[in-house]
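Input (structure):
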């Protein structure tokens, strides 16, 4: 009988759909247009945790970080108009790093829609570009169904789903049996196939190559052991994209690091000289613009996505396969090679570069530089620590100076590269992994964009160690202006004492200005960070980290005076050009263009 039909609020059904998909927390700020969703969250508060942030952007960035860290969908919401538009940076971050995020956006009630009512506008076009699924709900009964559809699409298409919800709908009652969640049906594709002929072809080309490199990206995340085994068997140095750092333990003797600017010297130098590149699980976005592969004689690619094969360079062999399975097969087919001059020259170059990094990190006197702070951070962290990195010099410096294991996690806004992700990412990390040590590392520009949410760490008792590097400038951009502009504009700024900011929101804050204070303060931060959030503001010099994309070391290309000035500025007296090691080991390069080198 119709009158006996059990009913449920559409909003409660919506939240139950989220729960069915294993969403256990979400971020946002209430508003008149989303208050019905708040009511539903109140009803379901025992199974889904609402995290109040102080800026919707932080909520969306944290949701993106949830997805990056766990592979599970992240959820954030904002109210109609400004609350929703504040989400955009986090949503674009998720889109560009291909992770599933659901955004719920408030809307004026259906009676006021399309009437130019307060904060009312056609919201759909705002999210059209960022989203793989983007709809406005028009009936209460369809609300749970649409949320289910949104989540399924976000997972399947590795992207952002946005649902705009008129505020009256979640409050309406719908039949309790009228909805279901499809979470139990969801599956991820499994890629088992490896083409044997292609695997053989790749093995043969790699074996015959004179100056081969394996260039892996985060698609090879599960394949660290296979990469190391192949490198050692065929004596092929490994390099990676920056986000693929720590797929192998850092400072492996044959790991050259990443290329371009957030990069390491050995990788840039070797890439410029390579004759064969195996590009695996990588979509290096600087490939075309930096002409990274222009001189390569054979380009071999392994990727799981057909849209990526041949994308960054013409591929002589393009294999559609999972990196781990493909590399395992190539390992099987390959026979052990003896060390080659190319291998030895690269190992010597890596050793020389690592000595340079250690020298900077171990300085005991002189002005405090970021390098010594990284050494102090390495001392108080462990193989389990999760590092949430902001955007700026922190990417360059963490890439070079954090010494990580595959069991560590480090992440940032890889491709959208939005500043401000450090603190939101750490909030997400601690919520997902309460037992693991979590650090956020930010520059003073990035931290200033989101510092209001330090109080969120306090409010939810999230023991995070926040590190801010204060150099009183947008350092990463200042260095660009040095290279491209006629002068500096907009790149320096006044000091913010972040230790005092921390104290103001109720967390312990320290300010470090000397090398000899580092050990003690970081030891205290480690201790405090076991139970409550803490912040260390490290006031560093405004020096430029060594530009590995523009090394002035090779006497065949630069005069003695220029080399001396470069070495002095970057404390690089002992740093050698790769050309020295190529010559030492008798690597002959018979191509004039390659001999010139790229970087
Ligand atoms: C300020 C800043 C500066 C930066 N500068 C640099 C820089 O100088 N150098 C640098 O390298 N990076 C830099 N980055 C990062 C850069 O923007 C890109 O995000 C990064 O290079 C892309 O890395 P990726 O190709 O490993 O990852 P993605 O772009 O995610 O590509 C991964 C690839 O792996 C494939 N894949 C996924 N799973 C599998 C699987 N199982 N098997 C096979 N293939 C798979 C995917 O289809 C995709 O093609 C910077 C980031 C920031 C924030
Ligand atoms: C939201 C946003 N605005 C601007 C930029 C351009 N940008 C990239 S890095 C950077 C400077 C970062 O400064 P800071 O956080 O102080 O770090 P530093 O490089 O000084 O260590 C800027 C302005 C950006 N990536 N994101
Ligand atoms: Mg700065």
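Output (sequence):
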């Amino acid at each position: 009988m119709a009158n006996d039909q059990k009913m449920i609020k559409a909003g409660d059904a919506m939240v139950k759909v989220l729960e069915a998909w294993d969403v256990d927390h979400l971020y946002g700020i209430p508003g008149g247009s989303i208050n019905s969703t708040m009511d539903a969250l109140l009803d379901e508060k025992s199974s889904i945790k609402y995290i109040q942030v102080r800026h919707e952007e932080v909520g969306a960035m944290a949701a993106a970080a949830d997805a990056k860290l766990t592979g599970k969908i992240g959820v954030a919401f904002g109210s109609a108009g400004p609350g929703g538009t504040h989400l955009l940076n986090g949503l674009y971050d998720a889109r560009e790093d291909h992770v599933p995020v659901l955004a719920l956006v408030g809307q004026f009630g259906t009676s006021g829609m399309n009437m130019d009512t307060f904060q009312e506008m056609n919201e759909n076009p705002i999210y059209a570009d960022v989203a793989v699924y983007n709809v406005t709900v028009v009936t209460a009964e369809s609300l749970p169904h649409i949320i289910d559809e949104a989540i399924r699409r976000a997972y399947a298409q590795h992207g952002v789903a946005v649902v705009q919800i008129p505020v009256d709908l979640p409050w309406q009652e719908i039949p309790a049996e009228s909805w279901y969640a499809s979470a139990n049906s969801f599956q991820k594709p499994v890629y088992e196939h490896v083409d044997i002929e292609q695997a053989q072809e790749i093995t043969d080309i790699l074996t015959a190559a004179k100056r081969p490199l394996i260039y892996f990206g985060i698609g090879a995340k599960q394949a660290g052991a296979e990469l190391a085994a192949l490198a050692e068997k065929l004596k092929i140095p490994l390099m990676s994209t920056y986000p693929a750092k720590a797929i192998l333990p850092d400072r492996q003797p044959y790991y050259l690091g990443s290329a371009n600017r957030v990069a390491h010297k050995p990788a840039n130098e070797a890439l410029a000289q390579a004759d064969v590149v195996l590009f695996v699980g990588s979509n290096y976005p600087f490939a075309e613009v930096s002409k990274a592969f222009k001189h390569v004689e054979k380009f071999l690619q392994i990727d799981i996505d057909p849209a990526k094969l041949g994308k960054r360079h013409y591929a002589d062999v393009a294999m559609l396969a999972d990196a781990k399975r493909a590399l395992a097969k190539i390992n099987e087919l390959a026979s052990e090679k003896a060390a080659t001059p190319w291998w030895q020259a690269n190992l010597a170059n890596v050793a020389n570069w690592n000595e340079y990094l250690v020298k900077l990190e171990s300085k005991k006197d002189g002005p405090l530089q970021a390098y010594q702070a990284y050494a102090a951070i390495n001392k108080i962290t462990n193989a389990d620590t999760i590092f949430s990195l902001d955007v700026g010099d922190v990417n360059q410096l963490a890439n070079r100076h954090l010494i990580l294991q595959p069991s560590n996690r480090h992440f940032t806004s890889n491709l959208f590269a939005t500043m401000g992700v450090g603190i939101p990412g750490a909030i997400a990390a601690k919520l997902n992994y309460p037992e693991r040590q979590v650090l956020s590392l930010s520059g003073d520009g990035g931290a200033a964009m989101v510092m209001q949410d330090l109080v969120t760490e306090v409010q939810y008792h999230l023991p995070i160690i926040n590190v801010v590097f204060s150099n009183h400038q947008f350092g990463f951009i200042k260095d660009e202006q040095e290279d491209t502009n006629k002068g500096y504009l907009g790149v320096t700024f006044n000091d913010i004492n972040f230790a005092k900011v921390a104290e103001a929101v109720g967390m312990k804050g320290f300010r470090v200005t000397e090398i000899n204070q580092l050990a003690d303060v970081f030891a205290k931060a480690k201790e405090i960070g076991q139970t409550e959030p803490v912040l260390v503001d490290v006031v560093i010099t405004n020096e430029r980290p060594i530009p590995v994309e523009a090394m002035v070391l090779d006497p065949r290309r630069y005069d003695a005076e220029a080399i001396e000035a470069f070495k002095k500025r970057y404390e690089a007296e002992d740093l050698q050009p790769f050309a020295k090691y190529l010559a030492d080991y008798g690597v002959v390069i018979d191509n004039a263009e390659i001999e010139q080198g790229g970087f």
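Notes: DSSP finds 23 helices and 20 strands in the chain. The pocket of flavin-adenine dinucleotide (ligand 1) is lined by residues 217-219, 241-244, 258-263, 281-285, 302-305, 308, 322-323, 391, 395, 412-415, 417 (CB under 6 Å).
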